[in-house]
Design brief:
- By secondary structure, this protein is an alpha+beta fold.
- Helices cover about 45% and strands about 10% of the residues.
- It contains four helices and two strands, in the order ααβααβ.
- It has helices at about 1-10, 30-40, 45-55, 60-65, and strands spanning about 40-45, 70-75.
- The chain has a two-stranded parallel ribbon.
């Protein structure tokens, strides 16, 4: 599913940011840090990662300022 998103985004001139590895290493907020630093506007992620964050009580708005993120999708 995410492959289709990537190809579709490239066809309209968007940029894609890929993270290779565990989304919990080196710390559980690494993806939120990247979203904040790069200014990502659309996040595609797996439901499991979101469930793990919820289990750990991690709330991104408490740690970083993700004002540019306009939508989140999960497969």
């Amino acid at each position: 599913m995410m492959w289709n998103w990537l190809v579709g985004l490239l066809t309209v001139g968007a940029s894609c940011v890929l993270y290779d590895g565990s989304p919990l290493v080196p710390h559980a907020n690494i993806l939120w840090d990247i979203i904040d630093r790069v200014g990502i506007t659309v996040l595609g992620t797996g439901a499991k990662w979101l469930a793990v964050l919820e289990e750990r009580g991690i709330k991104p708005s408490k740690h970083i300022f993700i004002y540019k993120l306009t939508r989140e999708t999960s497969v």
